[in-house]
Amino acid sequence: MKRNPDDNFAKLLDIDKRLAEEYGRPRWRSHGPPLEVLIGTVLSQHTSDVNTARAFASLRKTFPKWQDVISSPTFEVANAIRSGGLANIKAPRIQNILRAIEGETGILSLDCLHPQTLDRSRMWLEALPGVGPKTASCVLLFSLGFPAMPVDTHVHRVSRRLGLIAPVTSANDAHRTLDRLTGPDRDLIYGFHMNLIAHGRAVCKARSPACSACVLNDICPSGAPSIHRRVNL
Ligand code: SF4
User: Residue 88 is part of which domain span?
Assistant: First the structure.
């Protein structure tokens, strides 16, 4: 997506640099084939990374072929992913997604996306049942290596507090805004995404952000005054 020259890209680069000094600079690597990443992302909704990994491993062990997930009773799929939480919601969602993919492509694979452009791949993914901008962006970035910014709860909260997106911007709308702001550099997007999450978990927490210990305090419009800021003033 073309970057809007009016956007505050310099501020984003400053934030990115500071977060990289704090948490390191994660390098992009493929997280797996697109279908695996898609199903893994569905499983990750409202649960931890550990529970997601457990649920995914159990699903693959119980149903070694994706076709088995479709043809099995939904309660069996739910039982296989129970450790990931919300199993009774996620199981039919996964089955519906797989059925839609098979209906569209004739096979249970998303390899058809490899030669596509970012916009076409996004459109295709978001047309699948239960797949929104965040899930699509995870597949686009983590598997296919497209410059797409997934906006999870941490990215959404920290971006709003930092003024990268307007306070009223929904998580869904934030995808378009942040994609435009970050531009076409996949490696920048990947590192920035991972470090915003790290910062959201460690410092800029939902209920009690540790502003006084935050390396972004002096450029954050939402930050409570820090000790350093007070000393410098
Ligand atoms: S200064 Fe506070 S609100 Fe701003 S990014 Fe840091 S922890 Fe979050």
Answer: 34-143
